[in-house]
User: What shape does this take?
Amino acid sequence: MTEFKTVANPIDSAGSTKQLLSNLFYGWGYNFYRKENQLRADDLLVRAKVSEMLAAARAHLADLERAWRREHLPEPTREHPYADAAAVASAQQMRRAQQLIEALELRVRTVGVPEMDRINQRHRNERDTLAQLVGVDGELVLAAKGFSDAALAQRDAAALAMQMPGLLAQSGLENGLAQRQQVLSALAT
Assistant: This one.
């Protein structure tokens, strides 16, 4: 499991006047969040970053695809009115790879979180569950970073599209999302 660095809040050790000024500067009430709300906000932030990494990989593939299409799928002419079937198949594979990344990105963004309700607060240990989710999300960040780095390193659109299912399988993103679902389903019981 990934260890996250704990950053000390300088407001906690400040005098009352300095705390008041800091609260006014940073937004009134920011430091009065409960730990559960901070963990929930961290979870949202981490998932947004994972989504951004996936979006960067998808955008890279789209850029490569545009360049590849300019080179391999020229405008039809009288001599060549139809596009090469192999080139069209490769272009379709690139689109499917982009859709695969987009679907995963959407899943990361819309994955569930424990609801803030009185039952969770009274009868369940919401803080521990949220801490587990942040740990799982840390693994998602590592998986997304590895996947994104591998995708961004590739300069051949056709090769990247062919490697995409394997890269996603090796990345562990699907396993991380399944692990997250297990944590949430344990909360529901």
Notes: The mean pLDDT is 82. The CA atoms of residues 43 and 134 lie 6 Å apart.
